[in-house]
Write a structure and sequence with these properties.
The complex is a heterodimer of chains A (about 110) and B (about 110). Chain A has about 110 residues and is mainly beta. Chain A has no helices and eleven strands. Chain A starts with a strand and ends with a strand. Chain B has about 110 residues and is mostly beta strands. In chain B, strands 2, 4, 5, 9, 10 and 11 form a six-stranded mixed β-sheet that branches. In chain B, strands 1-3-8-7-6 form a five-stranded antiparallel β-sheet, with no helix packed on it. The chains are: A mainly beta (about 110), B mainly beta (about 110). At the A-B interface, strand 5, strand 9 and strand 10 of A face strand 4, strand 5 and strand 10 of B.
């Protein structure tokens, strides 16, 4: 199984809502990532988890809160987002952090109204 | 700051032609990767080339790496309409290998 799954596929939320994005992989990978991608731009790294510990936070605003409950799951909790946070949010995993190819999920298209 | 810059930004070719995309980066790297993204979907890993390698092949793909010029190229031979996608190079940073930084991307359109 070389698949990374993400739910939901689409999410529309108001600026006062709280929602969560979920990501799952069953490849035994020990590194997981969150990226944000705006239209016609490259993905921008947000967070890296290595062995279930947060190893990189790219100065992401606190209204984005990552969580790694176990080695297969990665969540991104959203609260009090702004319209400019609307984007495609991509989850990825790799065998180890940094040195390996990354496997990406299909993404969650987030719209903040 | 962004690691890789790619050119061209957009490329349109006919089926059967070859497509070449170039990537330049700024700092020392351990490896460079190429990814493909179909519109609005996740990225697919194509090929990884390490800093001590100069050329790598995978099917119709050929990647070169010139660390002295801090540049890489991706060649797709005998292109197909299904190759239509955005292509990104991605590099780590010599001092922080956990982090992958993507280039600006090349949008490839292959006409049947």
């Amino acid at each position: 199984d070389t698949e990374v799954t993400q739910t939901p596929k689409h999410l529309v939320m108001g600026m006062t809502n709280k929602k969560s994005l979920k990501c799952e992989q069953h490849m035994g990978h020990r590194a997981m990532y969150w990226y944000k991608q705006k239209a016609k731009k490259p993905p921008e790294l947000m967070f890296v988890y290595s062995y279930e510990k947060l190893s990189i936070n790219e100065s992401v605003p606190s209204r984005f809160s990552p969580e790694c409950p176990n080695s297969s799951l990665l969540n991104l909790h959203l609260h009090a987002l702004q319209p400019e946070d609307s984007a495609l949010y991509l989850c990825a995993s790799s065998r180890l952090a940094g040195v390996d190819e990354q496997y990406f999920g299909p993404g969650t298209r987030l719209t903040v109204t | 700051s962004q690691q890789g810059e790619e050119d061209p930004q957009a490329l349109s070719i006919q089926e059967g032609e070859n497509a070449t995309m170039n990537c330049s980066y700024k700092t020392s790297i351990n490896n460079l990767q190429w990814y493909r993204q179909n519109s609005g979907r996740g990225l697919v890993h194509l090929i990884l080339i390490r800093s001590n390698e100069r050329e790598k092949h995978s099917g119709r793909l050929r990647v070169t790496l010139d660390t002295s010029k801090k540049s890489s190229s991706l060649l797709i031979t005998a292109s197909r309409a299904a190759d239509t996608a955005s292509y990104f190079c991605a590099t780590d940073e010599d001092y922080n290998t956990d982090k992958l930084i993507f280039g600006t991307g090349t949008r490839l359109q292959v006409f049947p």
